[in-house]
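From the pipeline queue, job 12 of 40. The input is one protein chain; the requested action is below.

Action: predict structure.
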Amino acid sequence: MHFEILVEDQSGKKTLDILVPKIIGDEHTFNIHPYKGIGRIPKGLSTDGDVSKRILLDQLPRLLRGYGNTFAKYPADYPTAVILVCDLDNKCLKSFRQELFNILNACNPKPETRFCIAIEEGEAWFLGDIPAVKAAYPKAKESVLNAYENDSICGTWECLADAVYSGGYTALSDKGWQGVGAEKSQCAEKISPHMDVLNNESPSFTYFRQKLLELSGSIDSGVG
């Protein structure tokens, strides 16, 4: 199986570059395409957005239609799928997923696609594996880590920053968006190698892992 994986930023790419091989092994292939932010789904599912800006949801109608046309030309013995990985942020999960499926259903032909949404943010997947966070940051504040509820809408990145960064999120935010972005990338690089993909308490990570395993034929396909 070959996977084309779309993520909203570089820290997401760094995370998945490490985690995906842990899940699917060496017999499958993948490309990870990072974008410069999540953006929003264009009205009318327009494909006329500025490609050079590389904003994920802005480009998604064009991307899925393109993948549908491309995959249709591949031989049957070369199965390929698109995996979209993005944050839920403050959106309604049910309505957001429906919007994504509306984009997919407008494609003819439709590419094999799965939508994997981190709830509330990608850092939820790190906090789903507290031993990995502690291995990467031995001085992490256990009181903060232990108070976190998996996949809760609580300011997930802020929670992780409070646990691992000296002075917490408040001190980090003083560095501006570039400083925050650099710290997010560093967290991805430091925590991901320690993560046990078979033992993660984040339901949204478990869903992501399950979809990869189903598509790669490692487990039976379920519904959803």
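Job complete. Residues 123-194 form one domain.
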